[in-house]
Amino acid sequence: MKKFLVGIAVASAVALALTGCSGSGSTAGGSAKVITVGFAQTGSESGWRAANTQSMKDAFSTENGFKLIFNAADNKPENQIAAVHSFINQGVDAIVIAAVVTTGWDDVLKEAKDANIPVILEDRTIDADPSLYASWIGDDFKQEGVTAGAWAAKTLGTTATSMVVLEGTTGSAPAIDRATGFGSAIKGTQIKTLDSQTGNFTRADGKTVMEGFLQKYGKSINLLFAQNDDMGLGALDAIKSAGLTPGKDIQIVAIDGTKDGLTALSQGDFNYVVECNPLLGEQVATVVKDVIAGKKVDKAYTAKDGAFDKDQATAALPTRKY
Ligand code: GYE
Hints:
By secondary structure, this protein is of the alpha/beta class.
């Protein structure tokens, strides 16, 4: 974990120290009470999301002094706002949100503020006034897009290349920022975007949308930018069914670095994968405890992400945690 996260090593050590002496609501000092946290998760769209949910559940455990109220919003913004309302009504001690979309948060966050309930963002950023939340813990989506785009520029940028893009959930921070980062990195190259549509970060939609691209553009597609592993994995089925060879006829760059994504890379189906670390739970739990204890926290904690080519994926797979 230390390898992935910048500037929070000390905070993690504090969290570990706390773990040792808190359980079932009583501590060595006898004073700490169970912290009730409402967590509004996006849903269960991807392998990344499954790893993130597990990391959060592990960190917000009873042993660590928490009672976790977990909600998965099925990637519907209105479900998520309703979940946050319900957390406020239940009088939780803190609210953690992995926002489906960046917009629409001001009213409910103002309500939380009026109720004196601190809000901590994990994973996805939002557009609301920063005074409405205490902190954000997540990955640098724009940089991920830049890294993916820089690979594409270096590999294919000097020959005429036709790209299709599978976008994440429309209006989500990673979909917006990855597109911006990728676009800036391929600027001035010979890579042209034939089409770009949402696949909602899921395998099923990645497959369906790629089928549509193949019907429309056939063999003229040379490059696929999948904004997450799952959509790229879904697209593999569509590409193979169309009689084309992924990784050769159509080069594929994806983002996340899940075990399944790195396996596809190691097998030559993908060509490059940029990492996005989902194991944020421990840091989020530390920040929540610090905020409740009235300690000063940073406004943003950014995970450090790497990237993989085929050999690096093969080397990383045996010890990959998600
Ligand atoms: O890339 C995708 C997931 O918000 C960074 O959401 C996250 C993204 C991740 O569904 O797989």
